[in-house]
Amino acid sequence: MADAGSLGAALVGAARTWVHAVRANHEVTALRNLVAAELHRFPELGEAWRHRGTEGHHPAVAGALRTLADQGRLVIPDLQVAVIQFYGLLVFPHMVFSSYGTQIDEDLTDRLITGGVDMFLAHYGTQST
Question: Are 15 and 118 in contact (CB under 8 A)?
Fold first, then answer.
């Protein structure tokens, strides 16, 4: 269980950094909202976006999860799904709220991060994790 604590703490720390970066970069938020709003007018933009895939879109997350799986600390049968689920638990709520011009407060952000990591580890963790 000590390993679980250290892995969980490391994932929580990484998630806090990731969420903070998403929340703090207002230019990227504005660009993401603009691209999403204009996909219907520029379908080739949507195609380019889709062809990158989750590993191309989140290479650091995919690489970190792959490394943890290779070390036997996580059991990940489908890396693409795991990346999307990790992203969905931790970052997606902030992106959705920001697209409507609001933010999730710090207390709820912390609860989402710690709960999201717990859920992720409950699904992908090993018995020793």
Answer: no
Task: Please tell me the distance from the alpha carbon of residue 91 to that of residue 40, in angstroms, as a whole number.
Answer: 24
Residue 103 amino acid letter: Q
Distance CA 66, CA 83 (A): 10
HEC letters along 48-117: HHHHHHHHHHCHHHHHHHHHHHHCCCECCCCHHHHHHHHHHHHCHHHHHHHHCCCCCCHHHHHHHHHHHH
pTM: 0.79
Distance separating alpha carbons of residues 52 and 14, to the nearest angstrom: 23
Provide CB contacts within 8 A for 97, sequence distance 6+: 103, 104
pLDDT, tens digit (0-9, with 9 covering 90-100), for 79-98: 999 999 999 999 899 988 88
The three-class DSSP label of residue 37 is helix
